[in-house]
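dude i think i finally got it to work??
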Amino acid sequence: MTTHNRTWLCCVVFLDVVEFTKHHMQAQLAIKTHLDARIRELLDEHSRDDYILLDRGDGAAVCFLLDPESALYFALNLRDAVRAQEGSSVPYNIRTGINLGPIKIVLDVNGDKTTLGEGINCAARIMDFAGAGQIYVSRSFYEVVGCLSQEYAELFSYLGKRADKHVREFEVYEVAPARARPESPAAIQTGTDAARHDREWDAETLQSRVTRLSEEIGPMARILVHRAAQKTDTLEELDRLLAAPDIQVMPTGPNGPAAETGFDPAFLAKAERLLGHHLGPIAAVLVKRAAARASDHAGLARLLAAELADEQEKQLFLSGLEIEP
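look at this
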């Protein structure tokens, strides 16, 4: 499946070295060499097509095009590796943020895959709230991972709302620093053992929905189908829930499900249609997320324009909505 020039829902792990710039250059080089080696060792467990690794100088960002457990275990294992300091000549610590959200996968000037968009920006903001040795996650990530098993849900502690430098609020959870964790990622099946309601769902029915939805949003389709199947016992209702996953079975926005926005439905429909020309079906998710954050039509339009990598596309989008750039 072609991954570049499309938008995915994925889990982003954003991390940096605490007080990196306070070390002298030789120490910085030693820290970066040690950290990069630990990151590569953990990512060797996955195919190169399953993640995008971005070097951030004093840290890194990893976008996992996989199930959310992969992001959680990567963060936990990396924290453990850094704490052990095995082979490190300079003591250091890291802080980590994890977010689930939309990213745009594009090619950089070297022809390598890189990412843009709200998913990675929010991961960076979540990381900013964390301290040395801490792993913080967004509500969107918590609500998806927490539904997979009771063991996962018990890993997290709610910390409340935090505001960034732009006074944007996020609901933040901390991954428990010392509590016992599951030995291996929970296997969420698409058959009768995983998704049960009043009826037994057969594997073929659910897998067909996973396959169809994967074409639009990527690997998170399996989780969304699982969540939807737990909410209903009719095929018609299941398909209705999956027709609008961002509203029905997917937490949206930094603070969870979007409430009624009060925006003109015609304006929202037009924004979704115009954005869809550039980004495809993920436009519906992005419009409703932005509507939960914006206070007026102009603000909503500019939030959506920021999801577009090309400046000309941004101008065309804003012009189509009759909004001044």
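Residues 265-320 form one domain.
im so relieved honestly
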